[in-house]
Write a structure and sequence with these properties.
Rossmann fold, 2 domains, 267 residues, elongated, four-stranded parallel beta sheet, alpha/beta
């Protein structure tokens, strides 16, 4: 980290939204649109940058930091646009930004140059706004709520410690969404370690419920289009394949996080 005297710099907050990144320009556009919608709810003098962990040239995390600091940002509000605190990327980004001294899992990521004070937000996990969003995405698949179960499917992790965080977050999010939906029950499954087929079989064949499968992924791609359906070949289920984006509630979630952190900074 560069040496820097915080007292010499006037207070000026800025926002850095960090997501994974993709070579697919449509993926990037969806993130940019959500960030722009969240930014519309902020004071005009608060600069915002959407940056990516990889795959988007000229818009990596260091690029975003550099642009914000060039505008005089003294306090950096970082919003990790990831679905779970069980993501190993959250761990390595927090380490690279100096939020934690050592990563829990070995990483090739090096410390980033950052003079501003960093305020690290939370990933999605079990946020109630996201529960509303998930149900809004799949409610048109429901026909007889008393005979249906919602199965939320996420990426998961094979790494000890990270897997448990994935399970805590997605199980709580499934429960929140189930309460909103009025369905008979709600459950979750992960791709890593793989429990998707077993969970659908259990609810459908052993319990006699219709299963509505909802993917917990930021944007559509391989996991929503191929990985999940391929595990369920021959089973009876309903699936739209809709990822979280696009949806206005994601901007609402981001804006809520930013404003909450800004409130603590102004106290």
């Amino acid at each position: 980290m560069d040496s820097f005297n915080q007292a010499d710099m006037p207070f000026k907050p800025g926002v850095l939204v960090i997501s994974h990144g993709s070579p697919d320009p449509e993926w990037v556009i969806l993130v940019d649109e959500a960030v722009a919608a969240a930014t519309a709810g902020l004071p005009q003098d608060v600069p915002v940058e959407a940056s990516f962990l990889e795959k988007v040239e000229g818009r990596l995390i260091q690029d975003g930091i550099d642009r914000l600091e060039a505008l005089g940002v003294s306090d950096l509000i970082v919003i990790p646009l990831f679905v779970s605190s069980g993501s190993t990327h959250i761990d390595e980004i927090a380490f690279a930004l100096g939020v934690k001294n050592t990563p829990e899992k070995e990483t090739d990521m090096e410390r980033l140059r950052c003079s501003a004070r960093v305020f690290f937000g939370d990933p999605i996990d079990d946020d109630p706004v996201i529960a509303e969003m998930i149900w809004d995405k799949v409610k048109n698949l429901s026909r007889e709520p008393e005979r249906e179960v919602l199965l939320l499917v996420g990426h998961g992790s094979i790494h000890d410690g990270f897997r448990q965080r994935w399970e805590r977050g997605i199980s709580s999010l499934a429960a929140r969404t189930g309460e909103l939906s009025g369905l008979a029950d709600a459950d979750y499954a992960l791709l890593n370690p793989d429990s998707v087929r077993r969970k659908v079989s259990y609810w459908n064949e052993e319990r006699g419920f219709e299963v509505i499968v909802a993917p917990l992924f930021l944007s559509a791609g391989y996991f929503t289009k191929t990985a999940i359906p391929s595990r369920l070949t021959g089973l009876d289920f309903r699936y739209s394949g809709d990822a979280l984006l696009p949806h206005p509630f994601l901007a609402r979630w981001m804006l809520g996080q930013i404003l909450n952190i800004m409130k603590t900074l102004s106290q």
